[in-house]
Amino acid sequence: MSFKLLHKDKSSKARLGLLNTAHGKVHTPCFVPVGTQATIKALSNDEMKECGTEMIMANAYHLYLRPGEKVLKKAGGLHKFMAWDGPIMTDSGGYQIFSLAVLRKVRKEGVEFKSHIDGSKHFMTPEHIIGFQKILGSDIMMPLDECLHYPVSRNNVEESLKITFDWAKRSKKARATKQMLFGIVQGSTYLDLRKRAVEEIVGLDFDGYAIGGVAVGEPQDLIHEVTEYTASALPQNKARYLMGVGTPLDMLDAISEGADLFDCVVPTRNGRNGQAFTWSGELQLRNAPFKEDFAPVDKKCACYTCRNHTRAYIRHLFNTDEILGLRLVSLHNICFYVKLIETSRKAIKEDRFKKFVKDFKVRYRNR
User: Fold this and answer.
1) Which end of the chain is more exposed for a tag (fewer CB within 10 A), N or C?
2) What does pTM read for this prediction?
3) Does 102 have pLDDT greater than 80?
4) Is 91 a catalytic residue?
5) Which residue among 91, 145, 207, 253 is the active-site one?
6) 242 pLDDT higher than 70
7) Catalytic annotation on 263?
């Protein structure tokens, strides 16, 4: 299990890489669809593979609460449980504990919280999170960290970094497995604290590094500034994972800034609400102009949805509350995201990524 940097674009900080995992290879840059509950919402594994998906993301917090450690251990791990034979990345659930759980209390030992589902009390340590991800058998796992929302005071960030660093050390010590473990860099929007966090986390020598605490309420200019600064400070020979990003434009900007991996619920969440992403911009297929539009969602797309169905039909499905509508748009969106990143990789290889992004943004924004 390793990461190999293959090529750096001459016109930007974009990179080509190859991530070798226990369940297959992942070409980077790579978009990683989010399967929070061990499923990509409304889509089958076969559909995901047909789209070209190389790796998916699941969430340890949600899977710990349901179905729980006992069931997943009996199932033989997450791959067998959900019948997915490709690479899986699992988030530690740190963000969910701090955004969903109630009455949480952070201590040096770990975090105490109540489930957002039934109010049951739980106490999670870094060692417990690693142990649970061992049961899951994910190819890449994340340590427990504290994610703070924006805005936040410098003092709070400094205290939080101490906890996150201590938890990172304990997570590294508890690993004792061939699964890859990424270190998470926090620091909010304070660049000097980001620098300190990079130095501390990189000093522990993880298999790769995640940029956390981004896109948690801060304006776009700060998102890009923090992403580019942090990515540039990370080792060249390790994969860089930008957590929770984003839209098509967000991903292209992040690639330009040196990030390699991205996960986001946007393509499926927005798809369930009728929003389609295309090479010419975004479409809200519920809207009246599509009532008699018999074109495919995107003429440049070869996914199942675009090969077989029209905008008018999909609008009809949404207006009659038929489940097929949200499935078709979600499927198209995942295929579009994967194809966009695949095309980006080709542009990087040919040292024309900057021009590719510029041309794409003109078409995308001028719909």
Assistant:
1) C
2) 0.96
3) no
4) yes
5) 91
6) yes
7) yes
Domains and CATH numbers, the chain: 29-264 (3.20.20.105), 270-367 (no CATH)
Per-residue pLDDT band at 1 (split at 50, 70, 90): confident
Give whole-number Cα distances, 41 to 244, 265, 267, 271, 330, in Å: 17, 9, 10, 10, 8
Q: List pLDDT tens digits, range 130-179.
A: 999 999 999 999 999 999 999 999 999 999 999 999 999 999 999 978 89
Residue of 139, 145, 207, 263 marked active site = 263
